[in-house]
Design brief:
Pfam families: GBBH-like_N (PF06155), TauD (PF02668). The chain is α+β, with helices and mostly antiparallel strands. The protein has 14 helices and 13 strands. It has 2 domains: about 240 residues, Clavaminate synthase-like (Double-stranded beta-helix); about 120 residues, NE0471 N-terminal domain-like. The chain is about 25% helix and about 15% strand.
Length: about 450
Amino acid sequence: MYVPSINSLKNAFYNAKSKSLRSNQRIDLAKNLKYSTFPRNNELLRFNKLSSYYTLPQKINNHHNRQYGKDYTTYNNSSIPKIRNITTSVDDLIVNWSDNTDSRYNYIWLRDNCNCAECIHPTSRQKLHSSAQIPLNIEPISTMMYDEGIEILWGKELLKNISISPSISSKNAIHHKSLFTQNFLHSYKSKRNISSKRLNNLPVSHWDAALIRSKNLWVEYDHFISYDRVLLHALIQIWKYGLVFLRNVPEFNSLDGKAGIIKVVERIGSLQNTIYGNIWDVKSIPDSRNIAYTALELGLHMDLLYYEASPGLQFLHCLKNTVNGGQSTFADSFMAVTRLQQQHPKDYEILTKVPMTFHYINDGHFMHFNRPVIVVDQANDSMVEFYRAFQQFSSLVEAPESRFELLLKPGELTIFVNRRVLHGRRRFDAKSGERHLKGAYLDMSEFKDRLRTLLMNE
């Protein structure tokens, strides 16, 4: 039996060569047309026998250990070409690699992505400057190659920004030095490299009923819970095909009493709370307020389109099934969209532009959202234009007349729209006393639901 190693899994991603049709869409399919979010990619993935087999590594004690993630966010160093030489142009640093390829890096982007301790907070790993502070005419005083990368000495200081404290601004003064490693520069060498670094370009396979029946998508629950490699195998199947199946999932875990479905979800992430709660039951109920809780046939659909951010993954755990019928059905919407684009391009264009209305008005809820059935990715080629526009926007946001300030006192609480009201904090002296705030988030759809329901009941 062939046993793939972690490295073979990694290499399978980056060495996949067979091209597939574009699948950089997010598809919404209500009833028979509902919504979900999918990874962006352009290539098929070939895993040899990986679809059928996985190996069992050392057992882990903490399911939050996610070593598998590192294998897909970094490159194999031995396969990265070396920097042969560098030259400069008016706007870009040009790197010539040992594989006889060149790559260009805009000066604004490079300065904005300096990774030194003066630009990136050493423990939080967050930026200490705004992208709007990078001068549009910035250029290096000097560039120099070293063993692991490139050193750049900059000739302009950052633009003043009233939200940045003087002590931080002074550190980013004229003659600031930035170091960029070969690994970093290579990971941004091309759009493909960038997408791979961010897990946006991992390949998927479109499928129909015949193809998916030929794949082994089953994983043992105990192995899924206990072994990182099995978890990785399952996540790859989910990414590649959009679904996977687990066997022998208990109703309740024998060790901690948690529901089996909760153990499965928490092996990947956190439960998402919705109007149906953290977990919910799907069974036939008399006078049900949800068609899923009836014995009627359910057409192919995606759940909760009336949410601004519909759930990414859905989990269904069968506890009992002795009825006649009731088979679960699945279809690959990516395959359908690809065929639509090929065979009916005008219809495809319409579905990317015309929004549909999705709503749920029942049982004390008033949920509503509009979106096109198909949402495509947007291009991002205008580097200088973006920074110029961002500076213009930032100058309006940071203007003194735009800023409202107050000192919160004990017992006071603020609620604000995170996607509208920008927020920050003035610098303070940690030695002068104690500052302790607690924070929380609420989904925007839940807020709108509550607001509409209260208004409707007035």
